[in-house]
Specification:
Blueprint: E1 12-14, E2 24-26, H1 30-40, H2 50-61, H3 64-69, H4 87-104, H5 108-111, E3 118-119, E4 130-132, E5 135-137, E6 143-144, H6 149-153, H7 161-167, H8 176-196
Helix pairs in contact: 2-4, 4-8
């Protein structure tokens, strides 16, 4: 547990952190782990490893239906993860959760080429922000184009990354790498919104 309000649940536990050869074990309850392996065993995929299980959990936690259903409960307690109804359901959610995980780690190969060009003439100074007609203006003449409204308004926790990133740089001149980084952020938010809407989570 951190000094603030966060709680850490590592995927692996190292038995002797100071040893030269570190031995680790997965941070799963053994009985629940066995039950999940049985429910998720698939004729093509086989039994899931720990990363596939992590991605399933990550996918569930990004399901809009799950978040809406347990919105009040999640404010006061740890999230309860539903069992997969079928092996196919497990592997579908796990695959989408894996893509989300890679996107949120800013994996270049997963993000691909951003398609939100920086356009207009000027000195690239972040002055007054405005979102209009798919454009994110950083001043009166320069903007990032083809930005979906969903990405501009997307929330993570209590803030909106696409807006906060620029607000934190107000008065600064964006260099080429800054612009590329913001384009990647928009792509990640756009893909996150798209994938989240495809996660079917049966909570019955």
């Amino acid at each position: 547990k951190t000094a603030e309000i966060g709680t850490s649940f590592p995927l692996y536990i190292y038995q002797k952190p100071d040893a030269l050869i570190k031995e680790r074990s997965t941070n799963f309850n053994s009985e629940l782990h066995k039950k999940l392996l049985k429910k998720a065993k698939h004729p093509s995929h086989g039994s899931p490893n720990e990363l596939a299980i992590f991605d399933y959990i990550y996918g569930i936690l990004h399901s809009p239906h799950y978040r809406e259903t347990y919105a009040e409960f999640l404010k006061i307690d740890f999230p309860r993860i539903p069992w997969p109804k079928t092996p196919d359901a497990f592997w579908d959610i796990s695959a989408k959760g894996g893509t989300l995980r890679k996107l949120h780690l800013m994996d270049t190969a997963t993000i691909g080429k951003p398609n939100h060009p920086f356009e207009g003439e000027g000195n690239r100074t972040v002055e007054k922000l405005e979102y209009k007609d798919g454009k994110v203006y950083i001043n009166s003449a320069q903007y990032f184009n083809a930005v979906p409204e969903a990405a501009w308004h997307f929330y993570i926790g209590g803030y909106q990354p696409a807006q906060k990133w620029l607000k934190d740089r107000k008065g600064r001149v964006l260099n080429i790498e800054d612009a590329k980084n913001y384009q990647r952020i928009i792509k990640v938010l756009t893909e996150t919104d798209r994938i989240m809407k495809t996660i079917a989570c049966d909570l019955k």
